[in-house]
Structure formats: structure tokens, C-alpha cells
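Before the break, one more example. Copy the sequence into your notebook; we will annotate it together after we see the structure.
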Amino acid sequence: MIKRLVSAALAAALCVSAFAGNEEFKKWAPTPPMGWNSWDCYGPTVTEDEVKANADYMAENLKEYGWEYVVVDIRWFVANDKAGGYNQTDPIYSLDEYGRYIPAVNRFPSSANGKGFKELADYVHSKGLKFGIHIMRGVPKVAVEKKMPILGTDGITADKIHLIFGECEWLHDNWTINGDKKGAQEYYNSIFDLYASWGVDFVKVDDLSAPVYHREEVDMIRKAIDQCGRPIVLSTSPGDTPSVRPVAEHVRSHANMWRMVNDVWDSWWHVQNVIKVAHNWYKYRDQGAWPDCDMIPLGHLSVRGERGEERQTNLTEKEQYSLMTFWTIFRSPLMFGGTLTDMDPFTLSLLTNKEVLRMHREATEVKECALDQYHVTVASKNPETGECYVAIINISDEEGELIVSFDPEAIGKTGRYTITDLWTGKSLGTQKGFIQVSLKAHESVLYKLD
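Here is what the structure looks like once it is written out:
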């Protein structure tokens, strides 16, 4: 049995404040986006019927809690893709005459006759929800090989705007776009004009951040969205987005959300890694521009996925509480990765806790008040009500109990206060002075102080 006493008050100097920007696009995501993404459960193989079924569930069971985005992830334009591998030798791509990817009709029947995702987006919108897609940065290699014309130019073809270096390391569908070439911005404009005509509300753009940050293409994407006439929330993916100041300042001034890490799956070390990497991002958060912990790998995963066999999440219940505690108090975007259609009661309870989600939506001044090899303490405050929140998570793998103390004065809470367990809603009484908790490995608490 180990006993450790850690005082978060000693680390109060680490607390940092948010940066306030005024870019117009940030108004499109005034709170961290919440939704469902097809990647964790269906990989690159999701179909129209599966998207609709998950949208139906969200509208019926989650919309009232703030969940609203339905996102079709990777390679919706490949007719013969399969889970568990990319770069097959015979991909069947779907493109229009201007070298722009369009949905594979065998997977998305409503896209026939050039309709693209319009009918599917309309269906999602009819449920009071929003529709999103995933794309790769760059120009399709097929468009380059066939020298397909770029819409909005006078005879410029795709082979005139590409670079053969800087290719995505893990998916070889596209070439990098050379922003110095005439027609480069026009190509990005053309694809976002197309997405706007379909009714797309959210675009996750992949391979922008790692192993290098593609600043030039981020600039072109930002311009393309801003000129398309539709408010489309921009998510950059994957991580690790460099947290060095020039990159961090740039990404928060161009994207609504950006990945801090690579894909997060249902292993505790992934959660530990997110918490540690987030240490560098608190000072770069901004309303409408959110550091992204990645998708929530809970519930029923890998039906036809990319990581492991079909399963319920491998995270234990206490680890799931800890994941959701950090994602919500950190105010990360929340994108659920499991199937919604066979949701179990425990997972549903994690997604529908009104007080936890109110904290996620309304609290500001998110501060890391302590981080070491054993635990993290994060606090925030509701500026309207004065309620303070504190999360303490034992991130270590050591057996036994970790004793952590926290001084509420570190977040401006003086005198007597009432403690409420936010997950259970149970009042833990009134006190003053330090909070002390005893946590087993991977265990956490989430308290409201008022």
C-alpha cells in the first residue's frame, strides 16, 4: 500500500488563463462541438443506412443533451474499401469531372446522379442535427494522373498544382498541394463550395498536423471555408499538433478544433498520454477554438474498425469515468466513437449527465493546477453562477491508494463551501479549507464547489 500526499496548492502558479480572439469563424463553435463519428466502429466502411441509424438514435436520445454532429469519417469516396488496411492495390475512387471526391454510390445510394451528400445531409438536418465529413488534405493522385481540370480556372489542371514530396505517410490517395501555384487556392475553393452545396456543417481535415504542420494548406483551407458562404466548423487531424508557439498560435487562429495527439483508443495509456500532452495547451485555448483530446472510444467498438477485434471498450468503468471527467473539464470537443444504435445503459449515463455537460458547456478559466507522475488536478469556474469545479485523477498504474489534497483558494474559493459529486449528484457536505481524496489507480473525482 502506498500513501502519498500531494498539495495542488503548491502548483497554483501553473494555472493559466485563456486567450481571447475575435476571428469570425469562432462564433460557429461557441462551445466545444459534440457528436458522433463513424471511425472507431466502422473504419473506412460506413454506409448510408448506418449513418442514418446512428443519426436517428442521436436525435431521439442525445440531442437534448447537446449532441448534434453526425460525422462520416475517412474514405467515403472509395467503393471497395475494407477495415484493417489501407492502400490496397485496386481502390475504386469516385470523383467528379473536376477532380473532386464524391461519395461511392454503392455505399451511399442517395448520392447517385451527382447529388453527393445532399440528401444524407438533408436527412440529418431534418432530425435537428448537423452533418460532417472527413477529408484528406491535398489533391487526389487520380486527378493528377488524369490531368483533370480545376473548377474556377482557365484551363489549369490538377497536375499543375501538386508536389510529389510531403505525401501523407499512412494513406497514399493524395498529393500535397503547392500553394505557390495558380489554381491551388481555386482547387480548395472548389471542394468547399461543393461541400457547402451539399449542406456540410463540419469538416475534419486529416494529415495536417503530424509529422509536420502543413501551415500553407491550413491557410488555403481557412480561406476556402470563409469564401464558400456556409459556416463549416473546421477540425484538424490528427496530432500530435506541435505545441510550439508559432504553430499553436496559427492553428487556434485558423481552426475550430485541433488534435493534440494521434488516435486515442481504449487503453489507459492513451488517456494518460492525452492528459500529459494537454499540459502544453491550456494557454492556447480560446472560445470557438478548442484543443481536441480526440474521439471517445467507449461502447461498442470496431464493428468493422481499424484497431483490434469487435468489442465493448476495454476501459474499466473507473477508467471511463476518468476519461469523461478529463475530456469534459478540459472542455475538449466530444466525439463519440462507438455505435449509438446498441448503446448500453452505463455508457449512456456517461453521455447524458446534465450537470457534467453543463460544466463542459458553461465553465471557463480551465486551469491545470497540478500535474506529476501520479495525478492531475484541473479546475474551472462558471462565470455566471460562480460555481467552481475540480477534477482530480490518479493517472498512475501503481497499486494502493494515492492521497491528494487540494486548496480551493487556488481557484478563488474561500470560506465555507458545499461539495457535490458531479457524477452522482450527491452532496458531500459543507466544509472549508483543503479537500482531501484517496484514489486508487486510474480512479478520479469530479466535484462542484459552491
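The chain has a mean pLDDT of 94. The longest helix spans residues 184-198. Try to locate both features in your own notes.
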